[in-house]
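Hey everyone, long-time lurker, first post.

I ran two proteins through the pipeline my lab uses and got sequence/structure pairs for each. Pasting them in order. The first:
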Amino acid sequence: MEKSLIKKLQCLNCTGQLYSIGHMQYLKCKVCDEEYPAVQNSPILLSEQNNLFPKKVIFESLNKRRKTKNKVLSKNYVPQISVNLARKNLDMYFHRVASLNEGEIYILVIGGGSQKLWLDKKASLYKNIILLYCDIDTSSIVDLYCDAHELPFIDSSIDGIITTAVLEHVLYPEVVSAEITRVLKTNGMLYSEIPFMQQVHEGAYDFTRYSLSGHRRLFNMFKEIDSGLVAGPGTVLVWSIENFVLAFFSTNIIRKIIKGLVRYLFFWFKYFDYFLKNKKQAMDGASCTFFIGMKQNTIIADKKIINDYVGGKSYKHF
């Protein structure tokens, strides 16, 4: 981890400045001496009060995983059931962020997972962009491990943030949104994707869904640059058929077989989304929405968000 990046980090205990010990064996706070261990140069920046993801447990899990051979990812021959109508918007996002200034641009990818495998290639077109990946999942390919409810960065230190299919898995999305707003610089850029009409897909770590209006309300400290569909009603239909059939079975091996059969039979429904992507009424049945925004110092009024609703329903209270 570069020294310039470490300067952007803060202690979760007292917000003091951190510094590296040895060859990134761990980070230490200059104020309260709190220590944060690292595994393969990736620090574990979690507070002692985090009972859901204890620092010690994450450290032990990472060390155990490091001693085992990494599994080779096999090609998935089962058709995917979702389209992504918004992937091209990341190109526009990177272009906007890269133009913020001529110096180094730091973009934090929250819930990085395995996105580094393809996102680095997109960002490589811009010489001043530095992508920084974080996650709490120990199987992720990241630069640091942290909880999005407590981002270990000093205020206004990050130029851009990307969070895709993450906020449905956090306990308190409003807290994470506040943390995103805190660490972003004024005029910093956000790219967010959140599911709306999707069934549970991460078991016990699956909590919340948002309509496009709810997505917009979550980031009311941002000026909207663009928003819309990631996937629409066609994708929703395939998800629904799959989960309807799966509801009759509880055995894992049978569920995997059924899921494969359903996807082979009905995956083609998702292609209707390409026909529906520009129809505002399709937003009411969106599988997932995206939001691109620029941080500002004023809050967008709730009334404006309601008046700006995009969809096919004409209902109003008054």
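...and the second, right after it:
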Amino acid sequence: MRIESINVGRVETVRRGDKAMQTGICKQPVTGSVQIGVEGIPGDAIVSTEHHGGPDQAIYAYSSDDYDWWAKSMGIDVFPGLFGENLTIRDMPSDMTIGDRLLIGEVVLEATAPRIPCDTFAARMGDAGFGLLFRRAERPGVYFRVLHAGEVCAGDTAMLVQCDEHDVTILDLFRYKYRVQHNADDLNRLLEVPIAERFRVAIESTLDALS
């Protein structure tokens, strides 16, 4: 795997109909070395802190190969940072196991959650129906926590260290968000792995509702 682009956003306004939203989703590639810390990239704007950012979702990465799919299958003009990712990575798997790690020099990232589309994302794409397209595509990208901080640069090699302690994947979590009916065994399986805290709280709430 190779880092094709490192992307950082500032606070901007996007519109959906008459609704204006401030967001940090409009990320642009940067040059040179960039520091990655436990809270992400310093200076990268995170506006909706209820849903984004924090130690368990410090870095969002998207696969260049999945961008190629969007361009070919959906006719979308793609470019690094379009989906709001911090790292655009060539050859990154679409469906990683929770707990898989990426080693980029001294930086160690651990997969924790998928991206879930929202109204701001749809506004960014200029398409009110894009959330449904994103859901059906099942190419959500990956959120990571930072286990070891350090500097990265476009062109750096990333090595995947697979987690062999369980088989809960990014797509398992992604599909959970859209499932209408749940059972306790499936939910407990998701809770046994190092998922992002926001997902843990949501799953625990779903589990409690079954009681």
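Reply from user beta_strand_b:
Welcome! Quick read of the second one: The two ends are 44 Å apart (CA to CA). The chain has six helices and twelve strands.
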